[in-house]
Amino acid sequence: MSETPHAVIALQISDMIRDIQQSPHADVDVDAILGELAESGVSYIPAAQHAGITIASRDGKLHTAAATSEYPILLDKFQQRAGDGPCLTAAWDQHVIKVDDVESEQRWPAYCRDTLDETPIRSIMAFQLYADQQTMGALNFYAERPYAFDAEAVEAGLIVATHAALAWNLLRRDEQFRSALATRDVIGQAKGMLMERFKIDAVQAFEVLKRLSQNSNTPLVDIAHEIVTADRASDVVDN
């Protein structure tokens, strides 16, 4: 008995998630995985011709994390310029946004005007991947004919977006893990330099870093980085 299309895409993305979980942290290629997620969506939803992943922050900055063609990148530029659009609305306010025909769409007039003037895109589906206090992510599908996405396409998009959100959360945790390791390493180096130079123990060295951070209202990791950088510069001059 053959598997349903929904089961096929679920298995494909589940395999991708398993690969992320099993790969060493340094071997995870975030850009490649996001690109695969976008490509998988286009291959799974027959009406979709283009796909992209949009990342935006509360300060209005917007970034196309993955795109299957130039159009998702261009459409994200229109959204940033206008300050709104279907992908941003899906990510911040609603989980799913569907545009049947850009030409007759009344929401986001500036975005729709630019889309009509500069692209062949007429139908859009956007799904929230995640949203927190600072940033959001959306998975977006585009077609060059109006009314391309019916109820079945929305259902398929929800399945892709749900599995993509799982993979995305794993990638974000991996990046946070690597950032934490880098932070720990630089603080450890700074502590070692203070211990050697001032003949103090690890607890005292950390207390020095903490007080410098508090007194200057500077993140502790930045204080540690300055100490390490200054020490290396001193070594270069001495040599």
TrEMBL record:
SUPFAM superfamilies: CheY-like, GAF domain-like. InterPro entries: ANTAR, CheY-like_superfamily, GAF, GAF-like_dom_sf, GAF_ANTAR, WH-like_DNA-bd_sf. The keyword Transport does not apply. It comes from the Bacteria. Residues 167-228 form the ANTAR domain. Keywords: Kinase, Transcription, Transcription regulation, Transferase. This is ANTAR domain-containing protein. Coiled coil: none annotated. GO terms for molecular function: kinase activity; RNA binding. It comes from Mycolicibacterium brisbanense.
